[in-house]
UniProtKB/TrEMBL annotation:
The chain crosses the membrane at residues 126-149. Signal peptide: none annotated. One of its GO terms (molecular function) is mRNA binding. This is Pentatricopeptide repeat-containing protein. The keyword Nucleotidyltransferase does not apply. NCBIfam families: PPR. It comes from Canna indica (Indian-shot). The keyword Cell cycle does not apply. PANTHER family: OS07G0598500 PROTEIN, OS12G0527900 PROTEIN.
Amino acid sequence: MIWPLGDPSINLTPELERWTARVHSVRPVELQNVIRELRKRRRYRQALEVSDWMKSRPNIQFMPSDHAVHLDLIGQVINGLSSKNYFNSMREKDKNEKTFVALLKYYVRECLTEKALSHLQKMKELGLVLSLSPLHIMISIYTCILASMTRFSRS
């Protein structure tokens, strides 16, 4: 098992290569656990690096839940345009509620109200509002709206 929780500035790809050379096989669940631990510690860049590495392995099947995490990490580390581009490049069979919710979270986190509302509408049209998660996320958008209104009224 690899636990790259030391120096947050190190590049993990060489470490992952050494690890796989030593153990000769890697289970997706091990990498998912590493990504989860890095995300808990807000080490999004390293988590994205592990996710990128995992995605590049031909012997590892990247599941829709892995795509959702990857999408969220792209939004955290790079930007929303990259998130949207990644989402658009995904195969249709990999797009599900989790991946749609990951993009919705980015829109809400960045207070992109129109995009969030449009995205939620598309989810409804596709029948992808299967849980309360997207609706709970949308409640957060109203915090952004209220904050914007407060800033506007103070000006």
